[in-house]
Design goal:
Pathway: tRNA modification; tRNA-queuosine biosynthesis. Monomer. By secondary structure, this protein is an alpha+beta fold. It has a domain of 155 residues. The protein has 17 helices and 10 strands. The strands form 4 sheets. The protein has a 4-stranded antiparallel beta sheet, sandwiched between helices. The protein has a two-stranded parallel sheet with strand order 3-10. The longest helix has 20 residues.
Length: 378
């Protein structure tokens, strides 16, 4: 069969964007596969070992920046955005309560990976039905893909100084997914960068992980330390974690563009009550069976019960002095691995110091700054 004409490809492109929105994607963009300008940046980042223990970032070399090597025959990438900001997000309220476990907003609802991958497969099938032949593969954090670079090139948004994709209409509270295809569809234009001289995300980062604009040293990032790192959290970073037990949203919370973030229409992304705003002591008392039950279908489950306890132990060490906290930490010592025990002992030393010096007073600078950057109803 003859190759489709330019006009047929244009019509198909318009249909793809319409189908994508009907499947729940708020934005759909299309780009080619030339990411050569991103290769030097990726190479320098890897050479400095800023990926930490995330060896999967380096195992595939530059294939991450070469979609046609990852999936031979790929001519275009369809990049999609799915919003996840829920009503009544109350970010700052949770972060301001040191007795509460703060969980990154993206992880409070259903794990987005399977949901988005299934929607992308449905989009691929719709395209296949409209064409004589088509090869496609969907990706949602499931392969060496430079998703932010592709989203930028497809016009979904620009790459912010915190390295996340930003949109004037949606801020950064959204997930990204990609569909690799072998059709030469017309491509979209990138949009103008909107960060300007703002450096709020660099200033607010508790661990100074954004070492310079657009470069994040994962080894310092709280999301990396609480999710990706498998061993002990370096002691220098433990006091800086505060009550963050899974991920961190600070660089997004402070971003002025998130004042315009859209509320998600996807009910599966709404927070689960057993996870949001729960007391640290309650979460610390979960045994492994309870942890698995309460995190079923959640991205949190991937860290496992051991790292869950590790993270909460650090948060309890950072909490104001409490006899209940000390008792809970002591009671858990005989039940945990050596790695978790190290963090419990550290937490107990922090509690002992506070018992002598008096309860610590959390700085209000972070909270005031974050609240200024939130929508009125957040």
């Amino acid at each position: 069969m003859a190759d489709p004409s330019d006009s047929e490809l244009r019509r198909l492109s318009e249909s793809i964007k319409s189908w994508g929105k009907s499947l729940g994607f708020q934005q759909v963009g299309i780009c080619d596969v030339d990411l050569t300008r991103h290769e030097d940046h990726l190479r320098r980042w890897l050479d400095k070992q800023m990926n930490g223990e995330m060896r999967y970032m380096s195992e595939h070399g530059m294939k991450r920046a070469r979609p046609a090597e990852l999936v031979p025959g790929t001519l275009r990438v369809i990049s999609v955005r799915m919003d996840y900001l829920p009503p009544d997000a109350s970010f700052a309220r949770d972060l301001n309560n040191p007795a509460t476990g703060y969980i990154s907003r993206y992880a409070l609802g259903r794990d987005y990976h399977k949901l988005m991958r299934q929607r992308l497969k449905q989009l691929g099938e719709k395209i296949r039905q409209a064409t004589a032949e088509l090869s496609y593969r969907p990706f949602v954090d499931s392969a060496p893909v430079l998703e932010h670079a592709l989203a930028e090139k497809a016009g979904i948004g620009w790459t912010g100084k915190h390295s996340l994709t930003l949109s004037k209409e949606a801020g950064s509270w959204f997930f990204l997914g990609e569909l690799f295809i072998d059709l030469p569809l017309p491509v979209d234009e990138p949009i103008e960068e909107g960060c300007g001289s703002c450096t709020a995300c660099l200033t607010i980062c508790p661990t100074n992980a954004i070492v310079e604009p657009y470069i994040v040293d994962a080894r310092r990032c709280i999301s990396y330390l609480t999710i990706e790192l498998k061993g002990a959290i370096p002691e220098e970073f433990r006091p800086l974690l505060g009550n963050r037990i899974y991920g961190c949203d600070d660089c997004q919370l402070i971003c002025p563009w998130n004042r315009y973030a859209s509320i998600t229409a996807e009910g599966d992304f709404h927070p689960r009550q057993q996870l949001k705003g729960r007391q640290l002591l309650e979460l610390f008392n979960w045994d492994e069976q309870t942890f698995l039950k309460q995190t079923e279908g959640s991205a949190i489950r991937r860290i496992g019960h051991e790292r869950w306890l590790r993270n909460i132990a650090v948060a309890l060490g950072n909490a104001p002095y409490s006899e209940a906290v000390v008792q809970a930490l002591e009671a858990k010592k005989a039940q945990v691995s050596d790695m978790v025990l190290e963090h419990i002992d550290w937490a107990l030393s922090q509690q002992a110091e506070k018992a002598v010096t008096g309860p610590d007073r959390l700085t209000s600078r972070l909270i005031r700054s974050i609240e200024k950057g939130l929508p009125r109803d957040a």
